[in-house]
What we know:
By secondary structure, the protein is mainly α. Helix content is 47%, strand content 11%.
Amino acid sequence: MPRRTYAEIFLDKLTELSGDEPCLIGNKTLRNELDWDEDRYEWIKAQLVDENRIILGRGKGGSVGLATAARTVIGHLRRNLAKPLCLAAVAKKP
């Protein structure tokens, strides 16, 4: 079985943290979940942005989301500017 790439690991963890909802996950939360140093995290994140596989969000520390969910996120924000999209930074699911 071939080894998974860092990009695959990043996307799998982002998908896991996003759950069933299309949402943006804080960079700090995702990096801590991956247990990566900042250099590796930023390098892989930049690669995935260049490949249009993830999108970047704003906020303190920034955030990332799956590019496939971008349309859903944008639609949600247009309809519900005051409502949170998801609470992905909350403690891990049991």
